[in-house]
Amino acid sequence: ALSNFVAAFNMLGDTLDSLTQNTPGSVGGTAGSTGTLANDSTAKTMFLNLRNTVMQAVGSGNTNSLVALGISTGAVGSAVGTTNRLQLNPATMATALTNDPNAAAALLDGTTGPLGKLLAQLQGLEDPSNQRAYVQSTTANLTDQIKQTQNSESIQQEMVNSRSEERRVGKECRSR
Q: Residue 6 contacts by C-beta under 8 Å, 6 or more apart in sequence?
């Protein structure tokens, strides 16, 4: 289950990276590209905030964080940029489960442990009953932007059509 959690959590990070990426173009070369949420400060910091929640210590003792269960962001001293995803060390997990199974169970508790805090944080970001929740408000804003763009395109197309008609009529008048 922890392996599945780590994989799903890292996939969320990959998705957020893709949505918030901002790749500049090169002079005289290729155009840059941006993700849908490249200018959204909440989306840019979301994964870091979620990761911090996962890594929080809860309670006291040696088994007070998911690090004690073998979840980490990689070895200390790892190259910059290589520690932005979670990793699971099965040997550390086995040791923690053997040495203090009750503390390990408390960490994995969905209400009091870091995973419970993570769940609450995620529910605050995406809550269908709350139009101010991040996902709902961002979706509404993007939908509004799409409608505004479509309306603007429609108006511009009408202007082009009108101008084309004026030119056609003008040509007909001059040719008579």
A: 71, 86, 87, 88
